[in-house]
Amino acid sequence: MTSATLRHSVWILRGNPLTAVAAAGVALFVLIAIFGPWIVPYDPVVSNVSEALQPPSAAHLAGTDQLGRDVFSRLIVAARLDLAIAVSAVGISFVIGAVVGAFCGYAGGKLDRGVGRFVDVMMAFPLFVLAMAMVAALGNRIENIVIATAIINLPFYIRFARAEVNVRRNVGWVEAARACGESHFSVVLRFLLPNILPAMAVQISLNLGWAILNAAGLSFIGLGVKPPTPEWGIMVAEGARFISTGRWWLVAFPGLALMMAVLCFNLLGDGMRDILDPRMRT
């Protein structure tokens, strides 16, 4: 990061402190995902029926569930799984989507139109329903959740890369690269893709939050991660049965964790848009 970019980022953060808060929140979630399993006070999968459905207390900060498992420990450990699913799925869809979209936008013609129509057909379906169908067909294993989430994220990156490269494919510096003997393959990978990556970073941040919500939604309806694995969607689904009995903590804490994770990634995406937008550099 250059000094000018750093100064511009600091100026944006001063004018929009929510972006700084969101960045701190994302960093906190990452640290929890990395170190959480070693700092939790209880084993997240060991049952203790004698302490079932205990409200939040000094011994159990977020209470216990119907099997006496510590909710706080399960929340912390679940952060690693949910974040790993989101990062893996978004990473796969970003790499494939950016490359496919960039080559389509650069080549144009029948290839561009064909891929464009395919993406339009995909986006015509409710994407969560499409993910449900794929996981139901493949089986509710973690790797299948990652694959399904990656596939339904592909259209965003293909369309974005295709549009951005289509605008840039005939600009002066691309023509200069071709005149210097660079192959079409090299022009796309060495010149066009790096040029559009900053703008795509905004989409990555937004999709990370959506991928976490998608994985939790699949688990909530029974098509995601299998119990007793700690996962936020499973915890909300299990706690929903006890809302009418006043055990609010079983839903409130995992629901709050989901909301904060998605909110932080969305706010970070908005802040990155402001930082990377050339029109803001005035």
TrEMBL record:
InterPro entries referenced in this protein's UniProt entry, alphabetically: BP-dependent_transpt_permease, MetI-like, MetI-like_sf, OppC_N
GO cellular component, one term: plasma membrane
Residue ranges of every copy of the ABC transmembrane type-1 domain listed in the record: 79-269
Transmembrane region(s): 20-40, 83-106, 118-138, 144-160, 204-225, 248-269
Recorded topology in the membrane: Multi-pass membrane protein
Keywords per UniProt: Cell membrane, Membrane, Peptide transport, Protein transport, Transmembrane, Transmembrane helix, Transport
Localization per record: Cell membrane
Listed GO biological process terms: peptide transport; protein transport; transmembrane transport
Family to which the UniProt record says this protein belongs: Belongs to the binding-protein-dependent transport system permease family.
Protein name: ABC transporter permease protein
